[in-house]
Amino acid sequence: MLDFPPWRQAFLWLITLACAAMALPSIASVAGLSWPAALPDPKVNLGLDLAGGSHILLEADQNQVRQLRLEQMEENVRSRLAKAEPRIEVGEVSTKDGKVSVLLADPGRSDAAREALQTLTYGAGVTGQRDWDLQVNQGQVVLTPTQAGINQAIDQAMGGAVEKVRTRIDKMGTREPTIIRQGGNRIVVQVPGLTDPKKLKDQLGQTAKLEFKLVDVNATQADRAQGIAQPGTQLVPFANPTKDGIVPLAVFRLGGIVGDQLTDAKASNDPKTNEPIVEIAFNQQGGAKFAKLTSENVGKPFAIILDGKVISAPNINEPILGGQARISGSFTAETAQQLAINLATGALPVDLKVVEERSVGPDLGADSIKSGMIAMGVGTLALMLFMLLTYGRFGVYTCLALIINTLLILGIMAGINATLTLPGIAGFVLTIGAAVDANVLINERIREERARGRKVVQAVEMGYKEASRAIFDANITNVIAAVLMFFFGSGPVKGFAVVLAIGIATSVFTAVTLTRMWVANWLRKARPNDLVL
What we know:
Oligomer: single chain
Shape: elongated
Distance between the termini: 20 Å
Strand content: 15-25%
CATH superfamily of the domain at 6-52 and 361-526: Multidrug efflux transporter AcrB transmembrane domain
Low-confidence stretches: none
Radius of gyration: 33 Å
Largest sheet: 4 strands, antiparallel
Strand order of the largest sheet: 7-8-2-18
Helix content: 40-55%
CATH class of the domain at 6-52 and 361-526: Mainly Alpha
Mean pLDDT: 80
CATH topology of the domain at 6-52 and 361-526: Multidrug efflux transporter AcrB transmembrane fold
């Protein structure tokens, strides 16, 4: 237990000094000192409650999820009936009243239609949940979404939206954002250090749903001006009506291409006009579909639609092969870059509306840091004084362990880019008390062993051995609590859990391992006949 060969001591000091060195940039930052630019500068990130930043609340349009499910089901029904053997001809198709109603051309094929569409009514997976109710009556097929299916679709859409939001924020270069769901259809986003909520709102408020749809050239301008669309088509407004005209464009609802098959998107400039554009690239499947669409419709116009608005409607002069294309639409360099980021990360599965936005100043955080530092400083000094008066030399070792423990926590947090929040400061102070508890257990156990008549070395060895068991057992339960808080908590709770978990590990290391090494070296050199405890 008290055997510390030179290689082991060197290893322990190497770990200690390396972690402590990583804490120096953070300490210099708090103290207002400049850190040399030539040296690495890992720093502890401050959370929104300490550093200030931007806070926005997003709300999803649940009705849009329902409408998208209806459109997808309509396309699936048409495809499934067309592939039936023999083909089942379809008459009128309607999505009114939240249902997909299909009128068969031959009512005698009703049973065949039921059999062809039966598998579409079940959700994905092995749960066997029915997402749609299928009814066939006298040549009419009606698919009605179940509440369970709607709830699952909304839940999946919200889960996907959270991940897309997180990816977009990461692309902005920010660190440690807080992104959590609130209720059934809201998302809270907090980004420390970003003081302009408008930039965050512009980045997240864009759905970035990109579509390529063929233009209905037979639709007259008069009909379009009156809002009249032919069956199978829809009217889409222009993104820039002052330039392209105020009359919306008629496009075919089905048969186009959506941008969920993009593999890359980047902002660039048109080599001829030098205008900002966005270059996109499809995956193999999307590229093949895009090539087929342009090959079969040479000479016809097709609309490029972004978030429900036409940004351009060029003619297809020749097949576009290779899965690459360019998007132009009166972009600025900033809007082109923003669109490229959003397209590259993927469209949001549901539109998100900003219902609340605010900027949080750093003043409260500065006061919290100051108060936390004062509390930690006063508490640490009081503990050190108590340990010195109570345990003498062993109290000195405890005080050194406390100082090193603080440096280790800061160093490890800086090394893993962790974020310190206001509850994290509380966790910081808590770990100092936990570290002292460990040394109190050890020192009291050594006292007991000496009272039983054991020699100095035996008393110290047994004191560390027996006390370590209780220390490890107690801290295991704390680690479990910290892990549970991290995985099931959110925002500041996670910040507290991170500091607590790191603090538990470092306090055990310093209070048990380092102090035992120091005591072992002292016993080997001084060989005392008694201990002052």
